[in-house]
Amino acid sequence: MAELPTTYKAIEHALDQANVVKAMLGLKPVTKKLRNPEPDELLLQMGAASINPSDIAFLQGNYQIRKRVPAVPGIEDSGKIVATGQLLDAKKWLGKRVSCFSQQNKDGCWAEYFYAKPGEVLLTDERLDAAQVTTFFVNSFTAWGLCEIALQRESKAIVVNAAGSRLASFLYQLASMHQIEVIGVVRKQSTAELLKASGWKHVLLENSTAFSAQLKTLAHKLLANTAFDAVGGPATRNLLNAMPADSEIVIYDGLSNKFLSAIDLLGMIFENKMITGFNLNDWMAETDSLTFETAQNTLTEIILTSKIKNAVQAAFPLTEIKTALKTYLGNMSAGKVILTF
C-alpha cells in the first residue's frame, strides 16, 4: 500500500445561503490534515463524487441534515479504501472499491479523502463502471424503498411526479417488475414524449388546463392508491386532491422549496387520505441485511442490463466545483454532474 499524504484538498462550505448562487460562490478550496481512521472507521481515497439535489438544499440550509460549519459538503461518492481502523477487518476492506452514502454530521465527500463507517459503504460489482458506482446509492435505493411501500399497500397503480428524473425511471422499472402500473407527471411535452418512447403508457402534463381532471379520472380508473412526490408545495395538493379514497402521498424530496397549502382536509378526514415522508437514511437503518443485499443485487443487474442507468452529463475536477454546480443547476434533468479527483 502506497504511503499516504499528510494533507488533502477539500471544498468547504462556511455559511448557509438561501440564494443558491450566493451559496455556490461561498464555497472555497481548503487544505485539511489527514489523520489515521478511528477504530471503527474506513479511510477512502476518493475516485469521484456526485452532485445531488440534496447537496443544493444543504448549501441553502434547507436540508434535514445540519452540519457544524465550516464543513465539507457531499453525500454520495465512490472510492478505494486505503486504511482501516483497528476494530475492522483489513483483509475485507483494504484496496476495495466502494460506493458510499453518508448524511452524518461530519465532513462530506467533496474532498480527496473521506472517513466512513462500514454501514455507509457498499462493496460494488466490478462490472459497474466508475460513473455508475459513484451514483449508485441515492436514486436506485430510494426507488427500491418507495416501491416497497407500493407493494406493502398492494397498489395496482402508482402516481409519480417529476417523472423525467432518473430516480423515477428506476421506480418505473421496479414497479413494472411487479405489474404495477405507473402514472407519470411531468412539466414538459418533450419529457412526456421521451417517457412514452421508452415505454411509459400513462404520462400527464401538469401545466395542462385539463391536468387535474385527467389525473383524477386516471387515478380512480387504475386504482392508484399511492403517489410519490418529489416536488412538494402545490404539487402535493394536486396529487392528494385527485387521488381516490384510502390513498397515501409519500414525499421524498421538496424540489419546489414551497410549503404545503390548500390541502383538502375534509378529504383526508372522510376519505382516509394521508401524507407521509420517506427518508433514505431511515429506510437503510430499518432494512435487514438480506433485503438490502437483494436490493443491491437486483439494482446492479438492472444497470448492467441497461434497463436503466444513472445518466452523467458532465464531470469536472474538484477545483472546478463552481462550474460543476452551474452546469448541474442549468439542466438537472440531463443527469448527474460528478466531481473527479
Report on this model:
The protein has 341 residues and is an alpha/beta fold. The protein folds into 2 domains: 161 residues, Medium-chain alcohol dehydrogenases, catalytic domain (Quinone Oxidoreductase, Chain A, domain 1, Alpha-Beta Complex), CATH 3.90.180.10; 141 residues, NAD(P)-binding Rossmann-like Domain (Rossmann fold). Helix content is 35%, strand content 24%. The chain is built from 13 helices and 15 strands. The strands form 3 sheets. Strands 3, 4, 5, 6, 7, 14 and 15 form a 7-stranded mixed sheet that branches. Strands 10-9-8-11-12-13 form a 6-stranded parallel sheet, with helices on both faces. Helix 6 links the parallel strand 8 and strand 9. The longest helix is centred in the middle third of the chain and has 16 residues. It is globular. The two termini are 19 Å apart.
Helix content: 25-40%
Low-confidence segments: none
- Envelope shape: globular
The CATH topology name of the largest domain reads Quinone Oxidoreductase, Chain A, domain 1
What can be said about the biggest beta sheet?
Answer: 7 strands, mixed
CATH class of the largest domain: Alpha Beta
- Residue-averaged pLDDT: 94
Count of separate structural domains: 2
Q: Write down how many β-strands occur, each being a DSSP E stretch of 2 or more residues.
A: 15
Total of helices: 13
- CATH level-four homologous superfamily name of the largest domain: Medium-chain alcohol dehydrogenases, catalytic domain
Q: N-to-C terminal Cα separation, in Å?
A: 19 Å
The secondary structure category is: alpha/beta
Beta strand %: 15-25%
- Supply the CATH architecture of the largest domain: Alpha-Beta Complex
Gyration radius over CA: 21 Å
SSE run: EHEEHEHEEEHHEHEHEHEHEHEHHEHE
